[in-house]
Amino acid sequence: xxxxxxxxxxxxxxxxxxxxxxxxxxxxxxxxxxxxxxxxxxxxxxxxxxxxxxxxxxxxxxxxxxxxxxxxxxxxxxxxxxxxxxxxxxxxxxxxxxxxxxxxxxxxxxxxxxxxxxxxxxxxxxxxxxxxxxxxxxxxxxxxxxxxxxxxxxxxxxxxxxxxxxxxxxxxxxxxxxxxxxxxxxxxxxxxxxxxxxxxxxxxxxxxxxxxxxxxxxxxxxxxxxxxxxxxxxxxxxxxxxxxxxxxxxxxxxxxxxxxxxxxxxxxxxxxxxxxxxxxxxxxxxxxxxxxxxxxxxxxxxxxxxxxxxxxxxxxxxxxxxxxxxxxxxxxxxxxxxxxxxxxxxxxxxxxxxxxxxxxxxxxxxxxxxxxxxxxxxxxxxxxxxxxxxxxxxxxxxxxxxxxxxxxxxxxxxxxxxxxxxxxxxxxxxxxxxxxxxxxxxxxxxxxxx
Length: 450
Hints:
Elements: E1 8-12, H1 16-27, E2 31-35, H2 44-47, H3 54-68, E3 73-76, H4 89-93, E4 99-102, E5 108-109, E6 122-124, H5 125-132, E7 148-152, H6 156-169, E8 173-177, H7 201-210, H8 212-216, H9 222-230, E9 244-248, E10 251-258, E11 264-277, E12 280-293, E13 296-299, E14 303-304, E15 313-314, E16 317-318, E17 335-338, E18 343-350, H10 362-381, H11 389-402, H12 410-421, H13 438-448
Parallel strand pairs: 1-2, 1-4, 2-3, 4-18, 6-13, 7-8, 7-13, 8-9
Antiparallel strand pairs: 5-14, 10-11, 11-12, 15-16, 17-18
């Protein structure tokens, strides 16, 4: 489908934000070229949500397949962008498209900043989630967690990892380590149902009683806080293991303790108190320390973007235009900006976690993509269409061929999907079979398309 004012849009990243951008602009009649690092589309929807949520993922996949069927949407999977990758940012910008949208997520890892964080048995939450979702590079890597895992954080990612440990790894104990108190927990109460049958309620009761004076100091009643916490342990999924799950509140990890083999043996923790901070509270260290034994530590503390991509970068984020435009949504929030020149990168936009790392999950990412599409549409309305899609596609294919890249198109995706659906074994907690390496997938696709 084409219109007289049809533009060519290059979209880098095919997660929920990017696919939302693609959907809106494709329906408006523009030509969309999607470049995706992974072979499969979906991003967070494929490799980030808890794998057993097959209904949610299936619904999203169906939407994305419908989008890729459109004649004005062109998909190139297995194409990495960045310094030393298949294509650089400058090369993409010079292909002749009217606009380039980066929705590549937050692929960097925040530095933990705790002594001993390079020890064996220290993991980042994103890596663990990628592992049990079978993202190539992570799915076939061993993640030995031991018998007692401490997860630093109190959000939905902590719950997802606990779910995997409780229901599938069936370890002895999971402890969520929380800098603040029970009242400041961040997870969705509906999500906790996946693990609440394994909650050590007696232990949690003792833990809340331990910090009751510190809760009272900021006007929180320990009995009411405990009731609110445990009151959410309803409609629990049936227990399938003897794993016990608990919490350690008002605790900040200060040092990872290791054995003679540089493997985690515990955490040195600092006791915290709560102090009012506007309508919220802040955790303040008390300089009181204790040892907490565990076999591994997972830091669920958020992510940062990948600075090697080549976009303007500062302090863990890609830089956006600091000058507000007054539009709704505000164009400046989505415009890439070069602080060294003091100018926006004309026609370059950011969406999803590439714009705001670790902000919400699938629904939030999709909404951000919808907003970005509005901003791009305003930009295109004031611009004459440039190079046609055939010229851009021909140049792109030539460059990838010369670099001996192995881009995967929709035909290849269909072949891969058919092969994975034919497998009956190896589903594990995913509920479906996935190849765990790009090499296997590329080999299969090229044999089937030969």
